[in-house]
Structure formats: structure tokens, C-alpha cells
Description:
By secondary structure, chain A is α+β, with helices and mostly antiparallel strands.
Amino acid sequence: MPEEIQQQIVRETFHLVLKRDDNICNFLEGGSLIGGSDYKLIYRHYATLYFVFCVDSSESELGILDLIQVFVETLDKCFENVCELDLIFHMDKVHYILQEVVMGGMVLETNMNEIVAQIEAQNRLEKSEGGLSAAPARAVSAVKNINLPEIPRNINLGDLNIKVPNLSQFV
Amino acid sequence: MALKMVKGSIDRMFDKNLQDLVRGIRNHKEDEAKYISQCIDEIKQELKQDNIAVKANAVCKLTYLQMLGYDISWAAFNIIEVMSASKFTFKRIGYLAASQCFHEGTDVIMLTTNQIRKDLSSPSQYDTGVALTGLSCFVTSDLARDLANDIMTLMSHTKPYIRKKAVLIMYKVFLKYPESLRPAFPRLKEKLEDPDPGVQSAAVNVICELARRNPKNYLSLAPLFFKLMTCSTNNWVLIKIIKLFGALTPLEPRLGKKLIEPLTNLIHSTSAMSLLYECVNTVIAVLISLSSGMPNHSASIQLCVQKLRILIEDSDQNLKYLGLLAMSKILRTHPKSVQAHKDLILQCLDDKDESIRLRALDLLYGMVSKKNLMEIVKKLMTHVDKAEGTTYRDELLTKIIDICSQSNYQYITNFEWYISILVELTRLEGTRHGHLIAAQMLDVAIRVKAIRKFAVSQMSALLDSGHLVASSTQRNGICEVLYAAAWICGEFSEHLQEPHQTLEAMLRPKVTTLPGHIQAVYVQNVVKLYASILLQKEQAGETEAAQEVTQVMVERLPQFVQSADLEVQERASCILQLVKHVQKLQAKAVPVAEELSALFAGELNPVAPKAQKKVPVPEGLDLDTWINEPPSDSESEDEKSKTIFREEEQKHTQHRQPEVDEAELARRREARKQEQANNPFYIKSSPSPQKRYQDAPGVEHIPVVQIDLSVPLKVPGLPTSDQYVKLEEERRHQQRLEKDKKKKRKREREREKKGKHRRQRSLPTESEEDIAPAQQVDIVTEEMPENALPSDEDDKDPNDPYRALDVDLDRPLADSEKLPVQKHRNAETSKSPQKEDVPLVEKKSKKPKKKEKKHREREKEREKEEQRKPSRHKKQHRKEKAGRSKGKKAKQQPPTCAEAAGPVENGAAEEEPLPPMSSYCLLAENAYIKMTYDIQASLQKESQVTVSIILENQSSSFLKNMELNVLDSLNTKMARPEGSSVHDGVPVPFQLPPGVSNEAQFVFTIQSIVMAQKLKGTLSFIAKDAEGATHEKLDFRLHFSCSAYLVTTPCYSDAFAKLLESGDLSMSSIKVDGISMSFQNLLAKICFHHHFSVVERVDSCASMYSRSIQGHHVCLLVKKGEKSVSVDGKCSDSTLLGNLLEEMQVTLAQC
């Protein structure tokens, strides 16, 4: 899918969900952009974030809502009290977590403990390899961060914690 | 050198990482694009460096930029580089980037095949997992075909983590490579009962996805699913299965009957709303499938409707929405049970949530009856006016039209009401559905003859009111209605009350602002109108008035002649000439009206949209035969075809002319009239039937109820649809009274007893048939050609990707259906698929584990190379397949050595089969054990090779505690587990029961590769049998030939030529006599044993290329003489070349 269409979908989806109140239903029926009437947008809204899934009619709507909840709870566990900035600065990690939940557009795992266990095992493996930025690079990154104006700004933004409501867990 | 490295690592420290990039972008809000283009430049620099960590970091940043909408396809090759890194950290980054930006059109994707295969068979489950995840996003038909077998093997992996991913990705493979479905299906089915819930869930997922598209092929799985449904506790799996049953029941009613009970139990017992909802959904599907056969399931329907009502009444909007969705499914077969909840659904129209309103609208569509149509539409009309967003308003508009026009206007009892509704809808500004309204107006006016008079009066008012002309800017806007209005007024102008006024309206200057196609219709219909006015005036003898009308025409038409629209211009100038001619005739007092109106005589009937397609092919006409034989090559094609065409045309016209003679036409017309008379759907109008109610007493006295709105929908000067609602009630009441009277007369006695009751009850239960329509509704059916074919084949989409997956899964596999297998080593002959993919090394030595995947990769790479070559011996091939299928039946028992080695023949010529080759050669053998080995190298590890040793237990003892030790040389050393000394052996990670063989892999590090090496070694083991255990030893010599360090690397001829020209290479040659083998096979042998690839081949001369793991280029020129072969070699290292040629000489001497 070309990047422009990708962006267009993201933009339009964002505008669609943004104008929806919290007390209306979390399903949006498919437009031509996402593949027609067999498709639905199913989303959940947490603080400043929207998690939007696009599914076809083979998925159970309520099931997907629960799945989003599982995903967000997993993020919460993996990032230890996840906040918006975690997701912004660690998009790669978010992808890796999502890939343990959904693979190639199909639901892979719905059990949160299993997902978290696999993520942690992979993180350990990465650590044992020395990670992407080896020690010296990390030290430099610490030096680079000193006296940079954006640091306080980030801290201000930092308390946008996602409140993960205690919904009945799926499975 | 050292300085350069230090410098590089310092540079690296100042590279941005992903977090730096994100932070930078956030800090450059004003000049984001500039900042990012700067970052991309940096990334390009980073990608040029050799350090894989730097590259990975760069690709990681690119992935982020891709997410922001930047095209990163230019870095596809770098992404592949990072994918092939050995560290998981980097590999994961590479695969993530690939999954985000690779697609069918990415050309480098074909380079990934071997890398992915290598990762799939990696001993680390996360390498495999990451490869599967990535592949699931970018799998192409080629990848699917090449990797199907590897993935299928992974479905039986020991780790559930890999199994579930492999199972799930199979669905993608099926879509891209449908041939794999049947061979893979048995194993997929097996996985439905996998002990791991995740794997089971994945298998259920895949089968449900498949069954959704082609349910009939999966009916045989119903008992298995039934079992799963009753014993599973995983709600995900339950939901999937229940959904699947919903798809299966329509095909097998008996299944439905069985399902009702357990599903009802679930509905009563479950607390999970999602499960409850899906159960209800499937029960509905079951009921639908049973509705024809079984009479009474009202209890189940009641249960469903009741549960759905609870959902709809819930405060949770999601449940409300889904409740409505499910309700609409019941509606299709059991409308009565839903109609009872009309109140609830109408209430939902007031919901603040648009999705819910839309769902409610859908329901209304099915709920209308003759009785409630007007009421429902009235309700909708109030919503139309209240609606804020144009989308929802447009949705309402289409829904109103859908509801009213459904099943040939079945529920409309009063078309005057409907026309007024349409006219009211024209008040909607900014709608994009003007053409819909227009189409309805035309359709009704044409097909309901009785309504024409009324329609014409309404349309002339529309033309007159002019508010529509103002909105002419938007395409498909409301002004489209004028198209219909103009046409209706023109075509049915005899019904016009004040034709002159309408004519004036249509000739206003403002009309020229309308879109061209509407103006064109205006122009055309102005003439129709003009003709009818003329006729009227002439008949009345008002010649002066007639001339006045002509004068108006002559004055006004030029504004259309100036139109920029070609169509309008053309029509207008034609008509202007006509009118001028009429003017001349009028001046001479010649009556022209008759002739003018003859131009528009005759009636237009609607033609069915599919009529053209359904014209049957006349007998004896074969559309596939050539009309003229295609011209032969000898003649000039252009000339020939031209003359053919001309002749043909002349023939046709000549042929036609005599056909269309007057008598024949008359005869046909007569025949058609006759037919229409016999056609039950073609009803002639009765004289002005709507009079019946217009003349009814008291119509004028009925107070007109205005809709209480700030902007009323009422079109000035036109009646509102509301009037009709009142009138209709009145009328129906009248009808009822009459009916009651009749009944009264019949059964006076009975009525005396319970008359009141009866009457009250008769109000709500009045059946549809009781309502007689207000007008005689003669709906003219759409015309179809005679003998139209009833088939609806044309609705199917030939490009449906799921069609290819519609295959019979129960038929036993044919030999030709096996998946392409890329393995032929005897190594695999003795292993079960599970062992093969997760060698038991895992617990122990770490290094060999890593290396292991490598050798396999290389092996496969080589074989693949070979397979790609076009000629493969057919006989051999078939034999191999037979072997494989046998293996499959016996649950993946390993194929025998010879068969497995089949496809290795490298480019063997058709006429001369090459004996199967194996790269494994004997290492040592005694009474207990036989060892064969092969050495594999990889370009990624420049000082490492993997030695794979197949250990075969030839005794009846049980062999265990096997340990391999080698006396290291200075140059070549065996990699040992950390902490062990150079004298310790490396344990073999498995035991061997009698008769079993398995493969172990050991990594060796080499410093120099230019010389062959031999290492002494010992295998020690304990042999245990009934009598006891003995400690045994077997000595061996491990031979590292120089060829083992070469890796088959393809090379293009231009690159090859450049290499030779460069002059950096030393040269050497050999010549071998007494060769009897064909050149083709000779090359195949060199390719196979010495890891070369053919660059170019001309007759009996070929250039070949290979590369050592340390980067030496080796080029060969092989020439075949009568009985001899000469090999000229060039290599960047003369010692290596000399040794290689020596080895080659040995090989060739055997040929």
C-alpha cells in the first residue's frame, strides 16, 4: 500500500474517531477507503490515545474490543505504567508487542500472560546480544541529553498516563 | 587501520538513534520536512557503512519515517542486509522494516527467499518467529510457493510459539499459492487438536477464515468442531467456532438441529456478552436455514429476539449497535417477530450515535408494510430535516428511496404521496443524490401510468419554482431533478394544465447555468412541449397564439445555440432551424402541428438493465468462428483488413435494407400488441383512476397538518406529503367500514355478541391484503429480450482471490499435488521433521546452535540454484515425488537417500540422467556406527564453517553419551562450549536407538582457507544392549577441502567480465583426459561438489564463478574437447586456486 494512501487512511480514521463522543458506540462501518462494507473500524479511547483496529466480518466485534484491551494492558505491563510518550519514543517496541498479538492481520494470541512472557524472553535475548546501542553509544546519548531544552518539556508531557480500566479480562 | 576503527566507533556514538530522531522531529515542528530530509541524508550515510549495528539503527529510524508517510522503498536492499544479520536484535529491526514497506511490487523481495528459509530453520525460536511474522506481511506468490514446505514443517515444531505462528501464516500461503491447500490440509486439521491452546486457536482461526469463503468444503469437519465447541473453554475459540457454524448451517440443516440445544444452553449460561452475541447470531443463522423445513422454532426465535431487545435497551452503545445488527438478520426470515419491536427501533432513530441510527434505518427497510410505510417515511422525513451532517442526511434520503421502491414499489399504496415525498426531498440542499431522486421520478412517471397527470403537474411546478436552478454548481447535486422534471413535462405534455407557462419556465435565461446534460434534455423537451402546444392551439383554431409561441421559441433558442456544451449546441441549432421552418409554414397558414407531434409519437417503455446481456445467441451463430479467415502473412495486413471491413459493412447494409419494409413492421407491431395483451405484467391504464379519491367528499375540509419545523420541507405551491397520510387514514377507514358492513350483513348474530372486541382487534391486525391501493397501480415491467436467458452468471467476479481456494479437501492427495520441496540431503533422510528443526543442541553448546542454521541455508541455497535451472529429468522427478508421497502417508517418514537426492541434478540434460549426488561423504564406520559428513560455509562468517555429521546406528544397541573430539590444528579449531578446554570433546546432543540416524553439527574456526586441512578426531560413545553397556571409540579424519570454503554465489556476466579484466587475478589451468560424461552433467558436478555457479555457457564452453567465505573470487573457464576437459582458473589467491584445481581434477577424473 503506498504511503500516501496509508497516511490518508490514518488521517481520515483519526478525524472519524476524534469527533465521536465517548458515549457512543465504538464501531464505525467501513468506507471505500478501508475496503468496503465487509470492514469495520473498532476502536477504544484511552486518555489522549485511540487504538483503532480495522476488521472484516469474520471477527467478533466485542471480541476485538476485548483484544484491544488486552493489547493496552500488555503495553502497560511491558512499559510499566505506559504513557503516551512511551509509545511515541518507542514505536519499534510497540510494533514488536503488537506483532505478538496480531500477525499478518490475523489474531495470534489473546492470552496476555503468554504475550508478555514472549516479549520478555525476546528482550532478554536482545539484552544478551548487547542491544542496538552498545554501552559507549549509550553513554554518549546520556551526554547528548545534558542541557538540552526539550527535557523539561517532555517531563511535563510525561504524566499523560493511560489509565487502564479494570475491565473483565478476556479468555 | 586501528585508527579508522576508533574513528568509526566515535562517529557511531554521535549517530542519532530512534529516540533522538523522534525528539528532533518534535523540536522542529516549524520546519519538520526540512529536518527530516536532513535526517534521511544522514541515514543514507549510515547505510553506506559496513557496521551492521549502524545499518540496523538507520533502518530502525527509516521504519519510523515510513510510519510518518515517507517513502523508504529505496532502502529495500539495506533492509534485506539488516534482515540477514546474525544477531536477533538487528534481524528483528530488518524484518519489522520489511513488514512495513515490502509489497508485491518490491523487486528485491525475491532475494529474501533463502534468507527467510534460513531463518525459518534457525535453532533459535525467536529468529524463526520474527521471520514468520515478517513473512506474514509481505508474502508473495513466489515466496509462498518456495517456502510452503518449510512452513508446513514448522507446523509440527516442538515449540508451540513457532507452531501457532506457522499455522496462522499458512492462511496467507494458501491465498498466494492455492495449490498448497490440499497437501497442507491434513496437518492443519491435526492442529485443531493441538495440546497448546494458542496453536489450537490459530488452527481454528485459519479454518474459519477458509470456511467462510467456501463453507461446503469444510462440512466434514463439523463433528470435530462440535466436539471442540462442547469441550473448549477458550472464548476466542468458541466464538470462532460458533461463527463458523453460522456459515456451515445453511448447507446442512441437520447440523442446525443439533446445534440449537448446545447454543441455547450457552446463551443461558455464559456471562461473556461477546459469546452470547455470537451464539444468538448463529442461532439466527440456524433458524434461517431451518425456516423452510421446520415449522416451529418460535421458542428459539423468541429467545433470540428477547435477548437482542435486552442488548438494544442496554446503555452500552456497542451492545445496542450489535443488537440492531443481529435484529436485521432475523428480520429477513421472521419479519413478524421483529415488527413487534418497531417502537424500540424507531426510538433508535433518535439516538445520538450515527452508526446506531444507520443500523436502525437498515432495519426499517425490512420492516415496512403497506400499512406502516407512510408513517415510517414521515418519521424519516422529520429526521431528514433535523439531520446535521450531509452524510447522514444523504443516507436517510437513499434509505427513504430504497424503502419506497423496494420490490417494485410493493408497499406504496398511493403514488401521489410518493411523488410529493420526492418533491419534498428536492428541498435538500447540498445532497449528492439528486440523480437518485431524478431516477425515481422518471421511473414512477414512466411505469405508473395513472400517476402521470399528477406527476406532470408537480414537475411543472418544480420547473417553475426555480429554486433548484440556483443550486446548479454541484455535480450530482439536487439540480439533477430538473433533468427528470423537464423530461416528464415534455414527454407527457398532454397532461399539462398550463403548457405555455411551463414552456416559458424552460426557456428562462437562468437555465443556461445548468450542467450541459440537463440543458440538452431541456432543449429536446422544449420541442415536445412546443409541438403539443401547437397542436392544441391549431385544434382550437387560435393561429395567432400558435404563431406567438413559435416567436417565443425563435427568440429564446439562440441562447442554447451559444452553449459551450456540444450536445446542447447541436440539438439547439437543429431545433432552431426546425422552428424557423415551422414559422415560415405558419406564415403561409399551413397546419404543421400534426406533423410536428408525429416526431415524438410512440411510447417509451423501460428496458431492464440486463436486457442487453440476456439476448440469446441465435441458433447457428457461432461467435468464435472467424467471419473471415485471418489474413496470411504473405499479404500486406493493413490493406487486406481494410478491404475486408469495407466489404463486410456493405454486405450488412444491403442485407438489412429489404428487411425493414413497412408491411413487415406493421405485422410485428401487431404481434407485439398481441403479446402485450397476453402479458399479465403489462397492464393498460384505466381512465384516470385516481379520480376515485380526489372526488371523495370532504377532501378539502381535512385540515392539512404542517410539519412543525423551522424550515418546512414544503415546496411552495405544492401539496405536502402529510396530506396524504391523513387522506390515506381516512380512505382506509372508509374501506374498513365498507368491509365491516358487508360482514355485518353476513353474520349479524355473531357480531352482536362480540362486535366491539372484533373491531378493536381488527385495527392492529389488519392484514396487508386488506388495503386496496388508492390508485390503480399499473407498473409496467421492464422489457427483456425474448427468450432471455435466466442465468445470473455475470454477477460472479472472476478475480476473487478466494475462488482458487475452493477445492475439495476430502479427496485423497494426488502425486502431482505435493508441495515443492527444497531438501534433498540424506541428512534429512533419517530425521523426523520435528527433530530436524529443533536440534536438541539447544540446552547445551551455544555456538553450534547458531551455526547450524547456516549450513542448511547454504545447502538449500545451492539446491535452489540448481533447481531453477530449466532442465530436470522428468523420470527422476516423478520418482522423487512418489517417494515423497509415500513418506507423507507414513506420517512424514523420511524419503530414502537416493530419492531425496533426486532434484539435485544440476542442469542434467534430458537425454542423460545424472546419478543422484550427495555432498555427504563417509567419515568413518564400524560395527556400531556409521558417520558421514558435509562441510558448509556461509558468506556471513568469514572464518567459520559448520560440519554436519550424520550418525547412523548400525547395531542393535542403544548408543548414548556420544562425544566428539578433534585434535585442533593451529589453523583449524573446533568451537567448544564456553569454559571447556581444548582437550574436551563436544557432546552430541542426542541418543541413537537401534537403526536410527540423526545429524549433529559442529562449528570450526579457520584462519586461512587457501590450503586443505585434515584433522584427526575420535567419537566416543556408550553402547548399551541387553547384556550391558560398553564404552566404544571410533577414530576418523576430517578432511576440509578448499572447495568446502566456497559458497555458490551467482554472478552476472558483465560483472564477471569486469572481474576478469581487472587483472588482479592469478591464473592456473588443468586438463583431464578420458572424459565420457556429457558437458551438461560435467558442469552439474562442478557446481555441486565445488560450489560453483554457471555464469554463461556457449556450446561446449562455460564460464563459472564462486566466492570463498573470505572473499576470494574464483573464476573458471571450462572447455570440453573430444574426450578431455580443460579448466582455466583465475583467482585472487594463487595457492587457493592451485588447491582447488587439484581437487577438481580428482572429481573430473571420476567422470
